[in-house]
Amino acid sequence: MDIRELDRRALALTGEIIKHVRPDQLVLPTPCPDWTLHGLLRHLVCQNEGFAAAARGAGGSLMTWRGGDLGDDPYRAFAASAEAVTEAFAEDGALDRPFTLPEVREDMTFPGRVAMSFHFVDFVAHAWDVATTIGVAWEPDDEMISAGLRVAAKVPEDDRGPGTAFDQVVAIPDDAPRAHRLLALLGRRSG
């Protein structure tokens, strides 16, 4: 399946969960140790804006990745940023264009389809973070879980831990559901 379609579905999943966020919940801690829910939602907007810029060849400055603003409506801010990144990913040549992602590695670029897989798996994981924080269901479809497992399995060990996108892999039983295995690969404790 086209990574752009998977990414669009991950953004839709995340957006459906964010629709349930109430203003009084923005101060809640999340499974991401350094972020309240407000901080996590702002991070999602920043990521969308940064990846959209990277898809258009303008992602090199860290400031591009830090300017997201939730305003007074986090869902509206997220939806606008999700639309922007979806449009950027859909542009001709975006799958093969080099993306500069200073939050991942400052000294290299990634082919568009690889960079998009990073974005996709990050949003599948953060959708769970938001859902867990506010107590709503997280229900990625089977294709998202399968693709997420493939991408998560490729995250290098030295790119895990404090200050990185994902924590260390969490040990879980071999017969755990696939969604729980995905979360464990992304450093989340789902049970």
TrEMBL record:
Organism taxonomic ancestry: Bacteria, Bacillati, Actinomycetota, Actinomycetes, Pseudonocardiales
Any Pfam family: MDMPI_N
UniProt GO MF annotations: metal ion binding
Domain (Mycothiol-dependent maleylpyruvate isomerase metal-binding) ranges: 17-131
Signal peptide: none
Name by which UniProt lists this protein: TIGR03086 family protein
